[in-house]
């Protein structure tokens, strides 16, 4: 009965991104090494619900008013961000995905999918999600979370069983703006030097034009020639470097209590304009390192 109830919420999420959500689903997996620990719910979209560094919780936590896309850190796969008009264009073929944020399809399938544990130790977890309907192709997605000294390494791999197909992916973390209710002068700062910003159209999609980076507040995608390199600072308390060979980053900081800093394999809807392909013997991979330092 509990499984049926959970599945109903996941199915509703395919149709509406703001559907009611009961909070983390299933059993929790805990990892710890040194000054960093985390909690993951495989059945709740392989979501990290807690990421604690040096005694500070850095992720927005679940509360009853939260929707499924509004807490923790979850992978976005096999497309990242908005898929324009819920349509995937591959050559002459057109594939329609569920438009859960009409007219677009939002953030991929992971958040309404259950993942299975492939391998687990005290400081490493590997999870698998099978690709299938509503995605047009068969394959697998693997997420690996590895704790190193004062750092978290996140890795996503999309694998095809046979056919080549396009994919994009990344992570959607909600970083809390104030650690443990600290003062306003210690509010989160997101610091980076992007090489360009994706021009935003009036349809909530990038136009494809690259412009000079603009001042915030942001709900925007930025590009980096040499890979993502971002510093997150809670002044006087904690800092975190986010690095990745991936070249795209979405920053959303228009909510009062949390900021999204999302490393992506490519910009939202770029899968329709400059697709990156998964092949049978050549998985698509993205990796990012989040390294923490205590500020003194």
Commentary on this structure:
By secondary structure, the chain is mostly beta strands. 5% of the residues lie in helices and 46% in strands. It is built from one helix and 25 strands. The strands form six sheets. Strands 10-11-12-13-25-21-20-16 form an eight-stranded antiparallel beta sheet, with no helix packed on it. The longest helix is centred in the first third of the chain and has 14 residues, at 2-15. The protein is globular. Residues 1-5 have low confidence and may be disordered.
Write the layout of secondary structure elements.
Blueprint: H1 2-15, E1 29-33, E2 36-41, E3 47-53, E4 56-57, E5 73-76, E6 82-83, E7 87-90, E8 93-96, E9 105-106, E10 116-120, E11 124-131, E12 139-148, E13 151-160, E14 165-166, E15 170-176, E16 189-192, E17 196-200, E18 206-211, E19 219-223, E20 228-234, E21 238-244, E22 248-252, E23 258-264, E24 277-278, E25 284-294
How many whole angstroms does the radius of gyration measure?
18 Å
Q: What's the helix-strand series?
A: HEEEEEEEEEEEEEEEEEEEEEEEEE
**Main sheet record:** 8 strands, antiparallel
Helix share of residues?
under 10%
Mean pLDDT: 94
- How big a fraction of the residues is strand? over 45%
Count of alpha/pi helices: 1
Low-confidence stretches: 1-5
The best one-word shape is globular
Distance, first to last CA: 51 Å
Q: Based on helices, strands and strand pairing, what is the structural class?
A: mainly beta
| Overall number of strands | 25
> What is the topology, as strand order, of the major beta sheet?
10-11-12-13-25-21-20-16
